[in-house]
Each structure stands twice: as structure tokens, then as C-alpha cells.
Amino acid sequence: MPSAPANAGYKLPQVTAIFWVLKIAATTLGETGGDLLAQTLHLGYAAASVLFLAIFVVSLGVQLRSRHFRPAVYWTVIAATSTAGTTMSDLINRGPGDGTDTGGGLGYGAGAALLISGLAVVFLVWRGSGQTFDVSDITNLRGETLYWAAILLSNTLGTSLGDYLSDSSGLGYWGSAALVAVVMAVILAAHYFTNVSGVLLFWMAFILTRPLGATVGDLFSKSHDKGGLGFGTYGTTAVLLTVLVGGIAYSYNTTRTKTVEQESETVPGKV
Fold it and tell me: What pTM was estimated for this model as a whole?
């Protein structure tokens, strides 16, 4: 899909390869980070959800007040939607505990139906508002607010889907991650070789990065007896956080370089 110009009117990142790398890293970090607090540290899904939602609200406030794209702020909000989405999904599906108890949740089927309905309502409101679905053209508060509402719900839904595939479908972590990766490869092929709407393909891929992150995060962090690689939530979260910080630093450098180039083009006498 088209890339957004790097100017003050645009607060969302350009959709490039580095965008997808950071999106997958952030959503995978959301899975391991959410599990770290809720399960490993036994904070519980309810308390962890409140904490992550507070982080989301604060970081979103900074993002909405910004006048131009700020990589650190944007990706902090994305990571917050992923961690909050992880714990909220587990809260809905499993109940308020930390995974060591049973009962109290709606289960994957009812939880997914609830979240799909919520996401559908957001997109219907979005369509009725007259705002564009094309993220390269979102430049006002109403459009950006709808954008973040869709992201929060899609990341919560994606966690449910990823957990269902990993835990209940029989595919396991490897099979689930491979399945989602294949579907995303099909979407990529459709982008290059078909006339399917680029905006539709973007949102399909954007939503699917969350179950991919959920399955990959569990694959790396869960113990061997559960079918994972046994790196734990601490180690996996640290590695993903390093990748995300490195990508943000790269984004700042790229943004700064493009700004300098644009300014040079506007100076009389510059070639």
C-alpha cells in the first residue's frame, strides 16, 4: 500500500518491511510480556489487564497529542495494546486468575465471538464516520482514535485465536505458527500478484500478526514439556525488547535522514 509522506501531518509510520518486523516483534513481546506479569509473577489476568490498560491510556494520550510521527511513542502504544490484549483475552477466556486455577472464563469460542463482534462494531462505526481505512491518509484525531480502537480489539482477538490454535486445535505451537505464517504469505502474494484492495490486505495482515506473535511467543517461552523451546518469559521478553528498541532507533535515523533530504530539496540553489 502507499507509504505516508514523512511530514508533520502524518503521525503513523510508513508501511515498509521494517514496519512489519517491528509489528511482529511488538505483538510477540505482548504475548511474553503479558504472560510474564500475569503468570510468571502471578499478578493474575485481571490485575495485569488494569496495569497494561493504564500504560496504554497514558501512551495513547501522548500519541494523540503528538503533532508528528514519533517512533518510540507509536511503538510503545502498539506494545501496550499487545500486552493488554494478551491479558484481557486470557481474562475473558480463562477468568481472573494467573492460569494456575480453572474456570471463570467464557472459553475460546464465546470469547472470540465477543471480540469479533466488538471489532466489527468498531469497523462499522469507522465506516459510518466517513474516515478513511487507508492508514497512509489518517491525519486527524477521529481517524486515529478509531485506528487505535481497532488495534486494541484486534490484538485481543488475535491472542484468543493464537491461544486456540496452540492449545485446543491440536496443531501445537510449531503447527499454529506455520499455519498463520502461510496465510500471511498468501496475503503477501495477493498484494503483489492480484488486484485485491491493498487496504483490505493491510488490515488482514495487521490482524494476523497478533496470532502469529501469540504462537511464536508461546513457542519460545513455554517449557519443553508443553511443546515450547523453554527459553522462558524473562529471556524471550528481553530478546524481543532488544529487537524492538533497535528497530525504533533505526526508525528515528531513517525519519531524520528523510527530513533532511526533504528540507534540502526546498532550499533554493540546492540540487
Answer: 0.83
